Amino acid sequence: MTNQSTRRRFMKSAVSLGVSAAAVTRLAPPSALGANDKIRIGGIGVGDRGSDRLRTAMRLGADIVALADVNDAMIDRCEERLQKKTDRYRDYQDLLARDDIDAVILAGPDHWHHDLLMDSLAAKKDAYTEKPFSRTIEQGREMVKAVEASNQIVQVGNQRRSGGHWKHAHDVVAAGAIGEIKWVRTWDCRYRLVDPYQERAKDPVLYNPDRIDWKRFLGSAPDRPFDAERCSAWRWFWDYAGGLMTDIGPHMLDVVMWVTESVGPVRVACNGGNYHYPRWETPDNVHSILDCSTFAIVFDVQFMNGYEGDGAAFYGTEGSLIQERDGWFRVYDLDNKKVDEWERGDEGTAHMQNFLDCIRSREQPNSPAAMGHKVIIGAHLSNMSYREGKRVEWDPVKEKLI
């Protein structure tokens, strides 16, 4: 497929999500990289997800030259996984100050996402920033403005945007194969009766306080004594993240907004609780209903029973499109007869390849900042509803509470 046709698809999808024309049409100057030059990348935040993304980039031909993390043991482990030695930093600003680094992969805790991206843009680095795009809606707006004012390529780590299987799902729905969508159910269910992040906090090598810059980890979060569990399982504490809703929600809500071409919810109601992990602050079982004016989304996530796996069901007036438990996508007519099917393919590798390609071409990536901001709003509103114990009313065009 040509770059021009890819760009046309992105323009249509971006406009359907209410992304500004300026954000869509802004292109950075041509890259100084030659066709055969290796893209030199630095990794900031090199835990499980960061090291995975760095390995993928290296496998695709990038040169990983530097790593930054507040935990020296995490850098040790990442270098082992990369099977190479790199330049090492505790202060990521020292990594960003290097003029021989083309791009960075940002995978720090959620409460660092804003500062990491803003500082990377100021240092004129292209950036792959992990989901969730932002810690708050207000931060997201500021981040989008900064990206639009820069000449940098920014890819948000919503990797389903690079899955051809989801592109086909979008096209099937856009062609009217299942009529008008009236309800979408999406879910992520896993067997994880022991939380691996809490378990690894017990590792005295990986979480040795003498090798961790705890004050730097806390950043803008409230000050407190060193806590290995918070350092490892930060996803489940409100000071640093939004729990399952913002950890899993970006992926599932992203594809729903893409397939339906929705601008987002107008009201959100969310419920749940802590039923299995007593030390989590965020709910371990959470359910959100998002009213998108012409259809509703029901999103469920829990890690106590994995029977359903992850999936999505789009219910239309003339049929249904289901991402089923076996990974296949199937279309059914009103008599529940299967009329089409296709298999789930690669997402993660394709998403990183798209980022590397865009560093060279200066084309906008599959999941740009403005779109990443739009799709995470539903998760932020869900957490707001859960924590305040009431339904939240929202204007998705003006992006303000009603």
List the SSEs and their pairings.
Blueprint lengths: L2 H14 L4 H5 L14 E5 L3 H12 L3 E6 L3 H11 L4 E3 L2 H5 L6 E4 L6 H10 L3 E4 L7 H13 L4 E3 L7 H11 L6 E9 L6 H5 L13 H5 L9 H5 L10 H18 L6 E7 L11 E7 L4 E7 L7 E7 L3 E4 L4 E5 L5 E6 L4 H14 L7 H20 L3 E4 L4 E2 L1
Parallel strand pairs: 1-2, 1-4, 2-3, 4-5, 5-6, 7-10
Antiparallel strand pairs: 7-11, 8-9, 8-15, 9-10, 11-12, 12-13, 13-14, 15-16
Helix pairs in contact: 6-7, 7-14, 8-12, 12-14
CATH architecture of the largest domain: 3-Layer(aba) Sandwich
The CATH topology of the largest domain is Rossmann fold
Shape: globular
Taking the alpha carbons of the first and last residues, their distance comes to 43 Å
Helix/strand/pairing category:
alpha/beta
Percent of residues in helices: 25-40%
CATH class of the largest domain: Alpha Beta
